[in-house]
């Protein structure tokens, strides 16, 4: 029949059991590649984490040095260095609060407590903001500015600076 059509028909495939078998694929080499890749990625992750840790430590040391903190000084004390000294705090004027007599504020912006009649309040120069004495003293021991308007008490003219420092 093949000769009648003029061309040869393909031979049918033999059953799979009669085909020559291919050599088994080495699965062990694929497993080694996957294991090696995991080890390399783990090592890179460790290097990245160590680099971030060293960077953070360097930034912390630089910040601490810029604050003037010595190794034995606590960070809270390093920030307190930036505020006013106790001698300068005592020179800021203190007034007795009386309702309706030149007092526009009725409560302390720091603790939000109302000023009592006859209570002593500290009045900051230039901005004339009023605060309870303990509240503003605690604030000014760590910050050199008014908590309400942020006016610096360090940038005062010579006459006012003599009163404060």
TrEMBL record:
The chain crosses the membrane at residues 37-58. It comes from the Eukaryota. One of its GO terms (molecular function) is zinc ion binding. Residues 108-150 form the RING-type domain. PROSITE patterns: ZF_RING_2. CDD domains: RING-H2_EL5-like. Keywords: Membrane, Metal-binding, Transmembrane, Transmembrane helix, Zinc, Zinc-finger. This is RING-type domain-containing protein. The lineage of its organism: Eukaryota, Viridiplantae, Streptophyta, Embryophyta, Tracheophyta.
């Amino acid at each position: 029949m093949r000769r009648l059509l003029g061309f040869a028909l393909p031979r049918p495939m033999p059953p799979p059991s009669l085909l020559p078998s291919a050599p088994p694929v080495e699965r062990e080499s694929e497993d080694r590649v996957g294991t090696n890749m995991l080890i390399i990625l783990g090592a890179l992750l460790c290097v990245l984490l160590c680099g971030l840790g060293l960077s953070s430590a360097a930034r912390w040391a630089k910040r601490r040095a810029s604050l003037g903190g010595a190794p034995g000084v606590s960070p809270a004390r390093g920030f307190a260095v930036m505020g006013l000294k106790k001698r300068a705090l005592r020179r800021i004027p203190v007034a007795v609060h009386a309702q309706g007599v030149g007092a526009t504020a009725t409560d302390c912006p720091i603790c939000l407590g109302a000023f009592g009649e006859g209570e002593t309040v500290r009045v900051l120069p230039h901005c004339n903001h009023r605060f309870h004495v303990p509240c503003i003293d605690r604030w000014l021991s760590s910050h050199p500015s008014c908590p309400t308007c942020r006016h610096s008490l360090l940038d005062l003219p010579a006459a006012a600076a003599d009163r404060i420092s």
